[in-house]
Write a structure and sequence with these properties.
Radius of gyration of chain A: 40 Å
Shape of chain B: globular
Strand content of chain A: 25-35%
Helix content of chain B: over 70%
Number of strands of chain B: 0
Number of domains of chain A: 4
Distance between the termini of chain B: 72 Å
Number of domains of chain B: 2
Largest sheet of chain B: none
Bound molecules: protoporphyrin IX containing FE
Oligomer: heterodimer
Order of helices and strands of chain B: HHHHHHHHHHHHH
Radius of gyration of chain B: 22 Å
Helix content of chain A: 25-40%
Chain lengths: 615, 392
């Protein structure tokens, strides 16, 4: 059958030279199906394991031995490994072989469609019938032509040596679909490889380009071998820019390091802001940027938003993420357990590490967050119908290192929460990263702030270390002494409430890992935006490839090729004989029904029955 | 008879298997006219606010409905049966009625009610299909079809109304309802049933419902769980990454693919069980359509699904290129879409080019449901990535 001939090995078994066998194997269907399935299976790996995380996190997960095995297999970035690219490349190569092999034959098939067909070929069609009729051959032929025309064909006929030949077909361009789809695959894969930075990968492989693995190195001292050429045809890198800063490079991650790409312009981030929905969920992330040319001239300015990149001269700039860009924080520090100490003052930027006087303690300011609208339940575990969320205001995280080298992490919210007529400041702490925070609700004094609590704590400690036992009377007495200085107008009920809440906070602070508390008094917020910059000249080729792919698939599926051949001749015993053969390469069931209909019509119009074969 | 002339040949003698272009156009004419009027009305009324994209979308819908309605006439009734009640609900909202003060909205037309009606009707339909095959009762079969139709229509009405509801109270939240797991499950149930109905009618193969609909029923079960245990039917605003025109194209097209692949896979199961039963002279084989028919349904569904799946994946890649700066980030969802695609490309080659048929291809088609389900659902539940729409 025809469909066997054009793919299979069966068609060309005559001269099995080695080269030819290889050629046949490359273009064989078996290989194509195997490669498709193999590629599908190989692709699973990269979805099971998160790709391109830091090597240290993989090493932690798998242990030293498996970490190395997996690294050598390229499991951390499967889709960039030589073997994965190899499968894709092989598939592309096989498809290309397939096209070059099939196209000439298919072209011939499109262009040539002989009306006359050998009898054996007619008999070999998928559907075949032989019919003897009383009608003379020309009349029978007219009926057949009428029938075919009515079914939407445009039949042609010829006569030779007293025999009539009829041929018709539909969907002759079906094979164009094959050509389009397979060429599209090659085009898309080719363009994608180009976009995947083949020249750079190549030089990386050759060793002329070496990713830098030190992430804290200043730009100027990054060795030259980690810099990609300025006129790199394709890249995709990103840069994190604090508000007000300017950059002219982006970084592309490579293995466990990164490469530096110089940009043909400078990006200046004027400002960054987040828009919110009324629920507190972010609605949009917006960077206001200006592009400067090498001589300082403004090339373009505008906003970069999620889903709305900025394009300039073949490069696209995307909003990809954001973080703190070094906000300025003014803090007050309260020493725990030292009575009547005025609160100290500290100033620093997020990212900096401050020394706490000469105590040997150091404070690293980690992260500042502008708004914290959280569900009530996450603060105190109770439901608060009517106001399910609470605004805790800005927060910042700091890590305190003791002189002994121990560390604790703290999280401080700026705004108090209000519960049962008393206000509290929420302070979280934890001793190991990744653990849950323990939250302390520190009661606020009548003037706000936590100094009343801190003073009370100090006074208590002093009294108790003097040998007194913590009876309620002692607790109240000590508090009244403190309150006389700090909050003389406090009512007795308020006092009782405050004492109760202070006791609670003190038990919660049992494991507090630092001798002081920092509170945020004011801040100057500064964002940093991560912008991604890509240059992909292959894009337009990919678009056209995609169009060809879809169009080709449509043609293949919905414009099936159907062919009909007939031969008519006068029967020596009177009347005439019709041989009709036909086949379709898709939708065979439908075509079988069409053919059966023709048979019925021909039989009834010629008053005879036929013998027919369907393969 | 012997001397009858060609011209005397009555057209009714012609086989009716073939529908010529003329037939199609003729049957489609009133439909085309109705569509043209509606499109004209939309342009006349809202054209002032339209950009070129809106015109393009309108044109695509117009052409798609025109072709689909001409090829499948039941759609010519189904479209108004969805659009009119949905518009009625939109109108009711616009005159200040709400589910709290209008029982029609409350019990029938609000998005949630539509989805719940769909759930109930499709569950009932599933049971009826099974009984139909079990008892070999034709009337039950007809009821099963009607129930499926009713469920499908309610599902689409619910989605249509929900689209409007996303804007109510929060104009900035508005979005096409395909943005979270709940919404896409409504879409999945409704569209799988719709495509199933097409194949049922086209092949007169009602017994297939006993195989296809149980899967829809289990999706309905999941949807009910999402609704009552997870409260995922609540309308929430879109995260920034999803606020894109492309979502409107990408997601619904994906679901045309998923729906057809699902139908094909369960028809594959039907094929396997029926042919097994046939070798033992079992009753199932007699109740089911001929194996060639099931084979053909499988191929048709996969081919149609493949076309849409390809287009949808490409649109997704284009969206990614516009939104994230790369066509392909090897995000788990993308990769699984590629896996599904490669799988079916393999299937089509084996079938079309190598001419494989029968049991092996039925197995292939049936087993593919695992791949498709993982792509659709498993990725969201088990893997993390950029496609966060489906988070539980
Ligand atoms: C990435 C790889 C490939 C993809 C995605 C692909 C895709 C397709 C698709 C979608 C079809 C249409 C199937 C149908 O009509 O139902 C098709 C048909 C076909 N493919 Fe491939 N193909 C690939 C590689 C190959 C290779 C390597 C060969 C060489 C053996 C090949 C040979 C064919 C042939 C001969 C047809 C049938 C054309 C016809 O009968 O008109 N394909 N392919």
């Amino acid at each position: 059958m025809e469909r066997e001939v054009h793919v299979g090995i069966s068609g060309e078994m005559r001269s099995p030279s080695r080269r030819r066998l290889l050629w046949q194997y490359l273009a064989s269907m078996r290989l194509a199906v195997s490669l498709l399935v193999l590629l599908a299976i190989a692709s699973v790996i990269g979805t099971v394991l998160r790709q391109q995380e830091s090597y240290s996190s993989y090493a932690f997960r798998f242990g030293a031995f498996w970490f190395q095995v997996y690294r050598d297999l390229g499991v951390y970035n499967v889709y960039r490994t030589v073997w994965y690219m190899g499968i894709v490349g092989f598939l592309v190569f096989s498809t290309a072989t397939c096209i070059t092999r099939n196209t000439p034959r298919m072209l011939r098939e499109i262009l040539e469609f002989p009306v006359r067909q050998r009898e054996s070929a007619i008999r070999a069609q998928e559907h075949f019938l032989e019919l003897h009729s009383e009608l003379p051959a020309p009349v029978l032929q007219d009926r057949l032509l009428f029938l075919l025309r009515n079914s939407g064909y445009r039949p042609r006929s010829e006569s030779h040596d007293g025999r009539g030949h009829v041929a018709a077909r539909k969907g002759k361009f079906n094979r164009v679909g094959y050509f389009l789809t397979h060429l599209a695959i090659i085009t898309i894969c080719g363009a994608a490889l180009y976009n995947a930075d083949v020249p750079v990968r190549w030089s990386e492989w050759m060793g002329t380009l070496v990713p830098e693995t030190n992430f804290n190195m200043p730009l100027t001292s990054i060795p030259h071998s980690a810099w990609m050429p300025l006129h790199n045809p394709a890249y995709r890198g990103s840069v994190t820019l604090p508000e007000g800063d300017t950059a002219d490079v982006v970084f592309e991650s490579a293995g466990d390091g990164y490469l530096v790409q110089k940009l043909p312009f400078q990006i200046h981030l004027k400002s960054f802001h987040i828009k919110y929905y009324s629920t507190g969920m972010p609605r949009d992330f917006v960077s206001d940027v200006v592009l400067y040319g090498p001589k300082g001239q403004i090339l373009k300015s505008g906003v970069v938003r999620v889903n709305h990149p900025m394009s300039y001269d073949g490069t696209e700039i995307y909003q990809s993420s954001f973080s703190d860009g070094g906000s300025l924080l003014r803090m007050r520090s309260f020493l725990l357990g030292l009575p009547a100490m005025a609160a100290g003052k500290l100033v620093g930027r997020v990212g900096q590490t401050l020394k706490a006087g000469s105590s040997g303690y150091s404070i690293s300011l980690k992260n500042f967050k502008m708004t914290n609208v959280v569900p009530w339940s996450s603060v105190d575990g109770h439901a608060h119908p009517g106001s399910p969320v609470i605004n805790l205001g800005p927060s910042f995280i700091y890590v305190v290192h003791t002189p002994q080298g121990e560390a604790g992490e703290f999280k401080t919210y700026m705004l108090p929460i209000h519960r049962d007529g008393q206000s509290f400041f929420v302070q979280g702490f934890r001793e190991t990263r990744g653990a849950q925070y323990t939250y302390v609700a520190i009661p606020a004094g009548p003037h706000g702030g936590i100094s009343l609590f801190v003073d009370y704590l100090a006074a208590l400690q002093q009294t108790l270390s003097g040998g007194a036992s913590p009876t309620p009377a002692v607790l109240t007495q000590v508090f009244q002494q403190v309150a006389q200085v700090d909050a003389p107008t406090m009512s007795p009920e308020k006092q009782a409430l405050f004492i109760r809440d202070s006791m609670l906070a003190m038990t919660q602070m049992h494991d507090y890992p630092a001798p002081f508390i920092l509170r945020l008094s004011s801040f100057h917020h500064r964002w940093a935006a991560s912008l991604q910059v890509t240059k992909w000249p292959g894009t337009i080729v990919i678009y056209w490839g995609c169009v060809a792919l879809v169009l080709g698939i449509f043609i293949l599926f919905y414009l099936p090729q159907k062919k009909v051949w007939a031969e008519l001749r006068a029967d020596p015993e009177g009347g005439s004989r019709l041989l009709l053969g036909a086949g379709a390469d898709r939708n065979r069931l439908e075509f079988a029904r069409e053919f059966a209909g023709w048979r019925e019509a021909l039989e009834s119009s010629s008053g005879s029955t036929s013998t027919s074969v369907t393969r | 008879m012997a001397n009858s002339r060609v011209e005397n040949w009555a057209p009714e003698q012609l086989p009716n298997t073939h529908r010529t272009m003329r037939d199609t156009i003729f049957q489609g004419a009133p439909w085309g006219a109705a569509l043209t009027l509606s499109a004209g009305f939309i342009v006349f009324r809202y054209g002032a606010q339209f950009g070129e994209w809106q015109y393009l979308v309108l044109l695509c819908w117009y052409l798609a409905l025109l072709v689909a309605g001409s090829l499948w006439r039941s759609l010519q009734l189904a479209v108004p049966a969805v659009v009119i009640p949905a518009l009625a609900a939109v109108w009711m909202y616009s005159v200040g009625q709400t589910p709290e003060n209008s029982w029609i909205l409350h019990y029938f037309l609000q998005g949630l009610a539509g989805a719940m009606w769909m759930c109930g009707l499709l569950l009932l339909a599933t049971a009826t299909y099974i009984l139909h095959v079990w008892l070999r009762s034709e009337p039950l079969g007809r009821w099963a079809t009607r129930l499926t139709w009713a469920g499908t229509l309610m599902g689409f009405i619910g989605l249509g109304v929900r689209w409007r509801e996303t804007y109510i109270g929060h104009p900035s939240w508005g979005h096409i309802p395909v943005s979270n797991l709940w919404e896409v499950f409504v879409l999945f149930c409704a569209s799988t049933s719709l495509f199933y109905l097409y194949y049922e009618q086209r092949y007169r193969a009602r017994a297939l419902g006993a195989f296809v609909m149980p899967l829809v029923a289990s999706a309905v079960g999941f949807l009910i769980w999402l609704t009552f245990a997870q409260h995922m039917d609540r309308i929430e605003p879109l995260i920034p990454a999803l606020q894109s025109f492309w979502m409107k194209l990408h997601v619904p097209m994906m679901f045309v693919g998923y729906a057809n692949f699902t139908v094909a896979s369960l028809v594959g199961l039907a094929y396997l069980l029926a042919t097994r039963s046939a070798t033992r002279g079992g009753a199932l084989a007699r109740a089911m359509p001929a194996p060639e028919i099931m084979d053909d349904v499988m191929y048709r569904a996969i081919a149609f699904g493949f076309l849409f799946f390809t287009t949808a994946t490409i649109l997704g890649a284009v969206w990614a290129a516009k939104a994230w700066g790369g066509f392909w980030s090897w995000d788990p969802k993308e990769t699984w879409a590629l896996i599904v695609w490669l799988n079916y490309a393999g299937y089509l080659h084996a079938r079309v080019v190598k001419g494989w048929r029968g049991t092996s291809m039925a197995w292939w088609s049936f087993m593919s449901i695992w791949v498709v389900t993982f792509c659709f659902l498993g990725v969201n539940l088990f893997l993390s990535g950029l496609h966060s729409y489906g988070k539980l």
